Amino acid sequence: MRSLNSMLDEYAQSHQNPFNKTIHKLCVPTIMFSMIGLLWLIPSPKIMGDINWASIVTIFVMLYYLVLSKKYFIFMIPVIGSMYLGNHFLAQTNYLLSASIIVFILSWIFQLWGHKVEGKKPSFAKDLLFLLIGPIWVVKAVFKINDENF
Question: Are the C-beta atoms of residues 19 and 142 closer than 8 Å to each other?
């Protein structure tokens, strides 16, 4: 398994343009939020009880983050936790499906626009794991985490 630092470095190579960086700082979290919402809506078997697919996928994503880095795992707890709670409250309305679809589509349109401006393909085109590295890259950029001093 590649190190998190090497994956973050590789991810950063296709996110150098300031416009693309800004787009990703906004759209990576909104895509993640909308994905949780879409997973929430997938019917689960009765054997799962009150557990939905969003919960299961979130657990596996968080375990992946824990394996990658305990430090970033700690940062991701409130980030993903707030997304999960937001979707929980949205699920109490009739807007979860439409909101999730609209946010998902618009966020991807903007991200692809950012990559067109950048002139480089999205990192996930090479490796789908970069879909999970993007949120860590955003957290690192937004909170200005310096790995050497952390």
Answer: no
**Hunting for tokens 């979860």 — which residue is that?**
96
Mean pLDDT on 6-12 = 92
pTM: 0.91
Q: Does residue 14 sit in helix, strand or coil?
A: coil
Q: How far apart are CA 43 and CA 21, in angstroms?
A: 35
Question: pLDDT digits over 24-54, tens only?
Answer: 999 999 999 999 999 999 998 888 888 999 9
Residue by residue, what is the 3-state secondary structure of the chain?
Answer: CCCHHHHHHHHHHCCCCHHHHHHHHHHHHHHHHHHHHHHHCCCCCHHHCCCCHHHHHHHHHHHHHHHHCHHHHHHHHHHHHHHHHHHHHHHCCCCHHHHHHHHHHHHHHHHHHHHHHHCCCCHHHCCCCHHHHHHHHHHHHHCCCCHHHC
